[in-house]
Amino acid sequence: MIRTFEQHQLRRTRFLDGQWDFAADPERIGEAEGWAAEFPAHARKMYVPSCWNNELGLFDYEGAAWYRTAFTLPRRGHVRLVFHAVMGKAEVYVDGRPVGSHYGSFTAFEVVLADLEAGAHTLTVRTDNTHTPQTLPLERVDWHHYGGIIRPVELQELPDVYIERFRVKYSLDYRRRIADVQVDCSLRSLSDRDAAVPLALDCSDGGPAGAVNEVFVPALGRAEARFVFRMEEVRLWEAGRASLYSFRVHTPEDDWTERIGFRKIEAANKTILLNGRPVYFKGVNRHEEHPEWGFAFPPKLMQKDLDIIKRLGCNSVRGSHYPNSPYWLDLLDEQGILFWSEIPVWQFSAGNMADPVVQERAVAMLREMIAEHYHHPSIVFWSVNNECQTDTGEGLAFNTLLVNEVRALDDSRLVTFATSRPLTDLTLALVDVIGINQYYGWYGGKTEEFADFLRKFAAYARETGAADKPVVISEFGGAGIFGESGWEENRMYSEDYQAKLLEEALTIFRSDPNVQGTFIWLFADIRTDTPRFRDRARGFNNKGLVNEYRKPKMSYRTAKRIYESWE
Ligand code: ADA
Questions:
Q1: Which mutation among 521, 535, 542 tests ligand 1's pocket best, with the greatest number of atoms within 8 A of CB?
Q2: Which of 287, 435, 477, 528 has the lowest CB atom count within 10 Å?
Q3: Is there a cis peptide before residue 356, judged by omega within 30 degrees of 0?
Q4: Residue 450, by phi and psi: left (phi above 0), alpha (psi -120 to 50) or beta?
Q5: CA distance 80 to 188
C-alpha cells in the first residue's frame, strides 16, 4: 500500500512487491557483464520494498546492487511503472533494455513504456546508494545509509490517451468558507492518431458534479485542460479536526483521484496562523526508520507511530530529514496533524553549497517533493535545509536559490529551514518561519542557558531584518538510553537526565512569546552507525522519547505531561 485511499478505479494498477532476485555488485562489474539481460547465478532473494541492510550479510553494505522481477501483460499495451522510492541512483531496464533512470532517494519517479508486447517481461533495476560529497545526503549524516527499493513499485496499464498530471489548487476565504478552485490536468497520447477525449471531474461533495471538457489531444502529443469553479460552505481542515475532499478526473478509459483539505497557513507578526487562528506547534522530529525495516517503514507501524505521537499530545511532526512516505502523509491528513517536510540537505559546508551538481540535485529533489506531496493538507512547511553553513556567502546564495524555487512552485505553504548558527545566520530574513536547532544541556552549556540565548537571538533577529518572523525550536534534546537510570539525575545518557533536560527546555521555550512551537529531538531512537559517524552509544542516536522498538522512556511521559498541559 502506498496510499490510504483508492487512486484509480478504471486504470488497472498492481504492485510488483514481493520476492525479487537480488545481487550486490561491490566490484561494479554488473554493467560490463550484462546483468541487465542476464542476472548473475549467485543472486539471492530480496523482498521489495525493503532495505538490504536489514538482511543477513548486508548489514553494512553500501554500493551498487541489482534487482530483478518479472511481470506479465495480458494484452499488448502501454505501461507506466512507478517507483515510489529507490535509494540513491536507479537505472531501470525492461527486457534488458535501458528505459529510465533517476537520482534521489526519497521521491517517486516513473517510466512510461508505449506498446509493450503481451506476455512475460523482466524488470531489472540497478541501484547505487554510494554516498559522496555530491550526494543528497552527503557521506556524513547522523542516520544509517540504507540501500534498496524502499517503497512499492507499481505497474499501471495505460490507455492510448492517459491522464499524465492532475493538480488541484484553490484560494480560500476561510471566514466565509468559500474556495475558488482550479483543477489542471494534462492528457498525453501514446497513439499515432489524434483523439477528442471527454474529460470529466467529480468532487466528493459540494463540487461541480460531472463537469466535462472535450479535450483535443494530438497524436503522440499532450493537451491541457482546466476546470475553474467556486465551492461554498466548505468544511475547513483544522489541526485535530480534519475534513477532506476527493476530486476525481476521468475519461471513458482512465481516471485519477486526489484528496485535499481546505486550509490556509500564514505567518504574520511573529505568529503562525491556521485558518486565521494562531497555532502553537507541539511537535516531535521523526525519522521514518525502524531497526527491522530501515526506511521501508511498514504502513501498519506508521499508524502506530501516529497513535503514540497523538497520545503524547502533539499536533505536529517534523519529517527529519527527507520526504516521507505518501501513506504516512495520508494518515496525517486524516488525523489533522501538521507536518514539516524537508529535503536531505544536512550539514552542508560552504563548499558543498557552492557545487553546481549539489545545487542541481537539491533543486530537483525540492521540485519532486513539492510535485508529489502538493495535495497533502497536513504539510504546512517546506524546509530547504538543516544545519548548513548559512552564515556564509555560499549559504546565502544557496538558501536564496532554494527558497525562490519553493516560492515559484507553491505559494500555499510556508518556507522554512533549521539553523544551527542562529546568532550568525545570514539567511533568516529569506524564509517565512525560522527553525532553530540548539542543544544546550547536551552538547554544551547548561539547559538554563536557553533563556539567555533566546534574548540574544531576538536582538540578532532585529538587527538582521527578521524580527517579525515566527520562530520554532526545530531541534533540542539529549540522549537517554532506554532502561538506563541511577541516583544522579544529572548523569548523561540516563533516562532521568534526558527527561529533566526536556522539562527545563520546554518550560523556557513556552514562556518566551517569540517562540511559536517546539519539535523535540527525537521521537524514536534511530540506527546511526554509518562508517563516518561511529561515535554514538549502541550505534544509535538515543535521543528518542521512545526507543527504536517504540517502548516509552521517562522522557515520553514527561513530554506528554507538559504538552497536554499546554492545551
Ligand atoms: C543535529 C541534526 C540531527 C541530529 C542531532 C543530534 O541537530 O540535525 O539530525 O544529528 O543533531 O542528535 O545531534
A1: 521
A2: 528
A3: no
A4: alpha
A5: 12
Give the cell for residue 154.
Answer: 507499481
Minimum-distance ligand 1 atom for the alpha carbon of 142? 10
Taking CA 278 as the corner, what is the angle to CA 507 and CA 370, rounded to the nearest 5 degrees?
100
Q: Is 20 exposed, middle or buried (0-12, 13-18, 19+ CB in 10 A)?
A: buried
Q: What is the pLDDT of residue 210?
A: 62
CB-ligand 1 contact for 437 (6 Å cutoff) = yes
pTM flag (> 0.70)? yes
Q: State how far the alpha carbon of 347 is from the alpha carbons of 142, 396, 405, 419, in Å.
A: 10, 14, 20, 10
Enumerate residues 6+ apart whose C-beta is below 8 A from 411.
Answer: none
Mean pLDDT of the chain: 96
Q: Is it true that the peptide bond before 321 is cis, omega within 30 degrees of 0?
A: yes
Ligand 1 contact via 7 beta carbon (within 6 Å) = no
> 320: CA distance to ligand 1 center in Å?
10
Q: Which residues contact 178 (CB under 8 A, 6 or more apart)?
A: 172, 230, 231, 232, 234
Is the confidence at residue 12, as pLDDT, over 80? yes
386 lines ligand 1 (CB under 6 A): yes
Q: Determine the residue of 541, 543, 545, 555 to mutate for testing ligand 1's pocket, defined as the one with the most ligand atoms within 8 A of the Cβ atom.
A: 541
The closest-lying atom of ligand 1 relative to the alpha carbon of residue 320 is: 9
Single out the residue of 30, 78, 545 nearest to residue 285, CA to CA. 545
Q: Rounded distance, CA 338 to CA 207, Å?
A: 25
Q: Is the CB of 387 under 6 A from ligand 1?
A: yes
142 Cα to the center of ligand 1, angstroms: 7
